[in-house]
Amino acid sequence: MNVLLVAGARPNFMKIAPIYRASLACGSVRCSIVHTGQHYDQEMSGTFFEELEIPQPRYSLTCGSGSHAAQTAAVMVAFEDVCLKERPDLVLVVGDVNSTLACSIVAKKCGIEVAHVEAGLRSFDLAMPEEINRMVTDAISDHFFVTEESGTVNLLREGKPAERIHAVGHVMVDNLLHQVACLSRQDQTLLKGFHLKKEASPYLFLTLHRPSNVDCRETFSGIARALNELARNRTIFFPVHPRTAKTMKENGIRLADKVVLLPPLGYREALFLWKDAEAVLTDSGGLQEETTALGVPCVTIRENTERPITVEIGSNVLAGTSPEGILAGLRESLAKKERARVPELWDGHASERIWKVLAGGEGDAIKP
Ligand code: UD1
């Protein structure tokens, strides 16, 4: 079976890495990585291939940044050439970025089957570009690999056939557990390049990049007020996404000295910091899940989440974006820590289950 495995943006690389590695154990599968180039800076893309132990992509497209339409269109045009040349049996897409949407549309129109990993997640917020990407990708995919029960419920509600929906766990957790095991060998040297030492006293780890949070001056200022309050008595490590760096400057956002601004970090550097944080504050989708998997309290600076399991059984708290909400969210998340659990099947073996389904094993289709 000839499979094209698509990655485009930062959160995709950690998901395709374990899928690629597990494909090597399937004799019948030839899996080729396609990098669309949606993210292109060394620190947003390049570093990941080495540290995630995946080979350089067979196809590196150079689609780059742009408006949603321009970026999606550029990926579609370039990926169509790849599909016509390779004529794969299957295109495997992950997550919910513009590249996920673009490549699934192209594959289907070329008559190629599409498998969506992390299918069925819904925030029910169509103001989020990712929600549109998730819905359209799922509307045309042939195989659905879900990470949590809400994914199955949403897909069944949308009329997807139960035998095409597979609860396999989470490939991002496969990667996370693999990387945690690799860390101890390296951790002393990891942060040297940043002239940074991990603190013994409690600290927070922050990521922020959603357009709804950082493109709007009023919202960003409110979040900054909460951060400056929290930074009165602890350090906050903050790797700054390029979009955020730009809007911080444009909007004149000022953060306290104890908010330590860092460039975007590699996967292991970030993990090394957040795994021992008192709590993580984030508007990312993936970090809500990764913190749940390692039992680190998480405060989600958003009004909704497409990953409700992290709130139901983990210590993730949906705090909204107001300063009061964020401060209360941190208190609540710390209080929930002891009761938090890890979701079913988030055990490091999701990628193997995916190949078992795709490469002809019996699989575990959902019973309606
Ligand atoms: C994209 C995804 C989002 C994901 C995020 C992770 C979509 C719709 N959004 O958002 O779901 O959580 O990636 O990072 O696909 N830029 C650089 N260097 C790069 C890439 C981008 O400087 O290597 C800057 C450019 O100014 C660009 C901006 O970041 O215009 C935004 O990049 P883009 O890929 O459009 O969206 P993200 O905000 O990164």
Automatic annotation (TrEMBL):
Keywords: Isomerase. It holds the Pfam family Epimerase_2. Its EC number is 5.1.3.14. Residues 29-358 form the UDP-N-acetylglucosamine 2-epimerase domain. It comes from the Bacteria. GO terms for molecular function: UDP-N-acetylglucosamine 2-epimerase activity. Belongs to the UDP-N-acetylglucosamine 2-epimerase family. This is UDP-N-acetylglucosamine 2-epimerase (Non-hydrolyzing). It comes from Geomonas oryzisoli.
